[in-house]
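User: Run a structure prediction on this.
Assistant: Running it now.
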Amino acid sequence: MQCDMRETYTYHRRVLKASPMALPTDPVASQDAGAHVRADALVEAYPNAKFLWSHRDPAKVLASVCSLIQYVRSWSSDRDDGKELGSEQLECWAEGVRRAMEFRKRLGDNRFVDVSFADLQTDPVATLAASYERLDLTFSAAASRRVQDWADGHQPGSRGGHSYRLSDYGLTEKQVRARFADYLATYDATA
């Protein structure tokens, strides 16, 4: 979280400008889950950036995040302490969300649209079309088709299941929700 990303985002912008695939009028989307902790650097490189913030219950997400990180870490380490990982990730993501909320207060709500993760899953085209409209962006027919094509090929559960529990990481739903209390009180993250 201490990494200065200004040069990275500035370079990213230069690459996009030089790319024949990128049009200056196209909005740039970041799927970087960690971008929220580096949002100031992103806005420095993209001063007109607008943000779609997808909300989901942290108690439903954190076990998945821990499971993924545990798997990736297993490639290079034999250390496998689920409780340590759970505590580390709870603090990391809670701090990231706190920073994102603080950033949003400084920048202003007019550049943000809030979206339920459940709405993105059940009707991604309508959800994104409405989000673009609220951000005063154009959601083209081509974009609509691409989103629908992607959604058709990525239905929840279509690639099998993956089991994990917060308790695998020494966490409880109550504990996670308490750590994200300000976020949950501010945004509808019931999905």
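The chain has a mean pLDDT of 86.
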